[in-house]
Amino acid sequence: MSIQVFGLAVSRGIAIGRAVLVASSRLDVAHYFVEPQAVEPEAERLRAALAAVANELSGMQDELPEDAPAELSALLDVHLMLLRDEALYAATRQWIVERRYNAEWALSAQLEVLARQFDEMEDVYLRERKADLEQVVERVLRALDEGRRPAAERAAERAARSDPGDRPETPLILVAGDISPADMLQFKQSVFVGFVTDVGGTASHTAIVARSMDIPAVVGARDASRVVRTDDWVIVDGDGGLVILNPSPIVLEEYRYRQRQSELERERLARLRNTPAVTLDGHAISLQANIEMPDDARVALEAGAVGVGLFRSEFLFMNRDGQLPGEDEQYEAYRTAVLAMRGLPVTIRTVDVGADKPLDGLSLSELRHEHQLNPALGLRAIRWSLAEPSMFRQQLRAILRASAHGPVRILLPMVGQLSEARQALEHLARARHQLTDAGRRFGYATLGLMVEVPAAAISLRSLLPLFDFVSIGTNDLVQYTLAIDRADEAVAHLYDPWNPAVLHLLGQTIETARQAGKDVSVCGEMAGDPAFTGVLLGMGLRSFSMHPARIATVKQSILRADLGHARRAVAEVLSSDDPQGCARRLGLTALPS
Hints:
The chain is α/β, with parallel strands linked by helices.
């Protein structure tokens, strides 16, 4: 009988195949008491397992292929940080010493304690790190049970062994409670065509890796791993967040048709790579890419980007056990990206830590203490940089040195006040003087304002004389305008980019910048969503920056757009109580094929 399971759509597309189940290793943990004389050997067994897993993950990281998604290395860093946290070992050892629990039982007991603490955290980023802790513990439990190999390796081997002759013709869908990045590394290339997990959100590891691998995935499907049986036929609808088990022949044929159409659409969009983004009435539009790591610049260029509109430099600062990158290391990273873009502009945002991107290197207890207040409204982004002037000038010097190798633009995040902008300019001037005094070669980098808070949008006229260009971060602009944390499940449904207040602020910002003769772009999620392309064009936007994978889709919308019509229609959209419905009715969100 066909069964439908709903979850979160995190990676688009349709996958159809046979189910391969990976069960949680915590389901069969041994529980027994150890003798007093065995307490210290049991504690040593735990330490050895932690070290063995850390060595295994370090080895995997060292052997990552050059074309591996950058996210995988970053996620392995998180797991290594947890494994090397002395607090985790000490607390687990206490269960062994005081209760005389065996190592597996003690580790499971400590996991439950920490899981409850994570659940009580207000910081969304830290709450989601509970999944990292669970995955690390599962891997240590497997190491404690000698002779057992990682779950992904066993699953792939079972799949290959089940029917070797049919394997190329029988795609496989992985179904699990959760999937660690280390397990995902062990999947043989092209074995699994889709993923389904019981837990996880849009920022979970499975979601991140699935998107980077361009594989359909549904997470947060609750009981999927309990209702799916090995070898069941499974449809993963990565567009609608739906998993269908044992579909009827009619449903199976319908999804196979959709799958073929999706594949044809991808092939057709790929042919647009070298096509200039020009509207029907002849207006050229700039489509740039958002990147996290220097090597992502190559991917951006291959996707047809005409520049990097947002280099999120904070990813160079994360997962480093508190050891921040020095000036020379940052310079090499920025230089790599600049050279990879072959003369196209690279916009480097100064470090934006805080909120969902804290620096790590602290113990779990220190992290909890450090982030118990609301980080989204605290010391983050430009506020943190101004509070750490030595670090800030170090980064500015590195960026200026990289600008000698190609066009570079510096972008300041979350500026909300004129005083912050003036302080940043003073630091930039001092950084230039320091490089001159040291005889270091550097270029001229233009300076940009990132509009993310309503205060910056409202007071833009007074800020603009200090800046060369403007970039709008719509993710935070929506969040701060509506006072909605989009990662909070209780209020996420209220996070609405179509809210009239958001659209008015957006339109006002674009118009004010254009009137002042300043270049303006949008680099948030709205830029990569074709539903907003026509509206943004009508507001006067001529520069978009997005994930490289979204460039072809947005370019298609631009090629079908008429700027004159968009300009006339957007006025009606902005005056409507239902902007989304109005935009759809006027053809701004659903342009004809």
